[in-house]
Design brief:
- The protein is an alpha+beta fold.
- It has 2 domains: 4-64 and 171-350, QueA-like (3-Layer(aba) Sandwich); 68-150, QueA-like (Thrombin, subunit H), CATH 2.40.10.
- Helices cover 22% and strands 27% of the residues.
- The protein is built from 8 helices and 18 strands.
- The protein has a 9-stranded mixed β-sheet with strand order 2-1-18-17-15-3-13-14-16. A 6-stranded antiparallel beta barrel has the order 5-6-8-11-10-9. Strands 4-12 form a two-stranded parallel ribbon.
- 39% of the residues are buried.
Length: 351
């Protein structure tokens, strides 16, 4: 179960969702029953009727920063960068950031990059895996510049060209309705299906929602290059669990009610916290938790998630919860029934 080849599957390209469902809660929802080892097909708006009164849903309120920029080198060659981290400001007020670069030829240290509206950058250092540290200058606030001129960094399997008319759609729909804490480079996609109306119906059905924060980082999506999946390393991601959320989770566990994570990011935040304290409490920190089959889940009783890429750490996680064989059967069912896959695709509820 630890061989990477066990986590492969065939997916027709037309099932990779390029745009979201017309309405968030009209995506399909596959329910996977671990005890009965069976599946049932629904729409996401059925969720309130599929859960039990007293269930607690834990969502991620991180917000994706529009941190993707297109520019050029001094030679005129095009570059595309994704700004990955929070700023450190030097004594001149210039901001230095870790960035992921896409270019035909990687710039050298000391070389200049140029972007629209007076923004420029100097490459301070070149790191492995296409990473650079760039010092930006020419604008009073890089954060304000990104809000005005940056684009949302949708994953590469969602095909977007520079200046695409779909970039405005992405600005709205590649954020969850819970998004309020800036810092992510990708959306916690399980939350993309929720609407204000769905949340109201959940509350009316006796199902509570609480928020935690995990800022999705580049490391989550690093390709797995090890034969033994246990040797893979994901990058650190910052997370926060406030007192109110911790209290609600602790009460639910004490009462014997189910705690259902909305997304793998929530699983990693909660299970990291549970591993470091006797009883879940308010905390903040960083996690590089890799969850593979055999992992003992301490807090979560169910998971709402999207369909994940083959040979990915996220597929390891859902297999750890539901079992690799059952997940493979569920994915086959989803393909045969034309479910839409990945970030803008449909959802799965594992209970």
């Amino acid at each position: 179960m630890f061989d990477i080849d066990h986590y492969d599957y065939e997916l027709p390209e037309h099932l990779i969702a390029q745009i979201p469902a017309e309405r968030r809660d009209h995506s399909h929802l596959l329910v996977v029953d671990r005890r009965r080892r069976g599946f049932s097909d629904h729409f996401f708006y059925d969720l309130p009727s599929l859960l039990k009164p007293g269930d607690l849903l834990v969502v991620n309120n991180t917000q994706v920063v529009p941190a993707r920029l297109f520019g050029r080198k001094k030679s005129g060659g095009r570059v595309e960068i994704l700004i990955l981290d929070h700023p450190t400001t030097d004594s001149d007020g210039r901001e230095s950031r870790l960035c992921l670069l896409k270019s035909s030829k990687r710039p050298r240290e000391g070389s200049s990059l140029f972007f629209d509206n007076n923004l420029s950058g100097v490459v301070e250092s070149v790191k492995p895996d296409g990473l650079l540290r760039i010092r930006f200058q020419g604008v009073s606030s890089l954060e304000h510049y990104l809000e005005d001129h940056g684009t949302v960094p949708v994953p590469p399997y969602i095909r977007r060209e520079e200046g695409s008319g779909l970039t405005q759609l992405d600005r709205e729909r590649y954020q969850t309705v819970f998004a309020r804490m800036k810092g992510a480079v990708a959306a916690p996609t399980a939350g993309l299906h929720f609407t204000r109306e769905t949340n109201t119906l959940l509350t009316q059905s006796g199902i509570a929602l609480v928020e935690v924060t995990l800022h999705v980082g580049y490391g989550t999506f690093k390709a797995v290059r090890t034969k033994d999946i246990r040797k893979h390393r994901v990058g650190e991601e910052e997370f926060f669990i406030e007192a109110g959320a911790a209290d609600a989770i602790r009460r639910a566990k004490s009462d014997g009610r189910r705690v259902i994570a909305v997304g793998t990011t929530v699983v990693r935040a909660l299970e990291t916290a549970a591993a470091t304290m006797e009883s879940i409490g308010p905390c903040r920190g960083k996690t590089d938790l890799l969850i593979t089959p055999g992992f003992r889940f301490r807090l979560i009783d169910g998971l709402l998630t999207n369909f994940h890429l083959p040979r990915s750490s996220l597929l390891f996680l859902v297999s750890a919860l539901a079992g690799l064989d059952l997940i493979k059967e569920a994915y086959r069912h989803a393909v045969e029934n034309s479910y839409r896959f990945y970030s803008y695709g449909d959802a799965m509820l594992i209970v």
